[in-house]
Design brief:
four-stranded mixed sheet; alpha+beta; 8 helices; 197 residues; disordered N terminus; 2 domains; Peroxidase, domain 1
């Protein structure tokens, strides 16, 4: 399964009701397992890698969200992801259970919930950043520093490249959303011009 950028944009499936409850259960179970194994940091890295793959691979998103695939196909896909990403045994087993239960479509919510739970337990904040281009180490540090001044505590960044933004970035922290993308500015300019016509 390739992680190459595709023309299908990354998607997060909004969750409510039973799906939200299921995602929270998976988050709690994964956190408990990671804590018992004293491998929370390793699982955080694994989970971030899974999220990057979900965002970058249209094939993986298709597998995760297509209801026509049977359990054996989902298990095979999960095993291939484990093999290609080299994630830990604990995270690999967890992914296998999620696939077996036909819940791969919950993966973005599980990742987001897990990272938020880890950050909360550590007194930190989690920021999901989408950028049009790769950030340098200095740019990442400057962004983290700016967000830390706002929150008053450490901020963990999860950064995903999204060429559809054209330029700039977006930042989501909890219920806060900052959109400094060129795409949004162009959309606003277009609406303004249409309104003036």
């Amino acid at each position: 399964m390739t992680a190459a950028n595709n023309h299908i944009p990354p998607v997060s499936i909004p969750l409510a009701g039973e799906q939200a409850i299921l995602a929270r259960r998976y988050v709690g179970a994964l956190y408990d397992l990671a804590e018992q194994a004293k491998s929370v940091d390793a699982v955080v890295l694994d989970i971030r890698g899974l999220r990057r793959l979900w965002d970058e691979s249209a094939e993986w998103r298709f597998v995760g969200t297509d209801p026509r695939l049977d359990n054996s196909q989902l298990q095979k896909a999960a095993a291939e992801v484990v093999k290609q990403t080299g994630i830990s045994t604990l995270t690999g087993n967890f992914l296998s259970v999620v696939a077996q239960n036909r819940r791969l479509f919950l993966l973005p919510a599980i990742v987001e919930g897990f990272l938020a739970l880890v950050a909360t337990r550590r007194g930190e904040s989690q920021a999901d950043v989408r950028t049009a281009h790769t950030l340098t180490s200095a740019q990442k540090d400057a962004l983290a520093s700016s967000l830390q001044q706002v929150t008053g505590g450490k901020v963990n960044l999860t950064i995903v490249e999204d060429a559809t933004l054209i330029g700039g970035l977006t930042v989501k922290m909890g219920s806060q959303f900052i959109d400094a993308s060129v795409k949004t500015k162009l959309d606003q300019l277009e609406r303004t011009l249409k309104g003036a016509a």
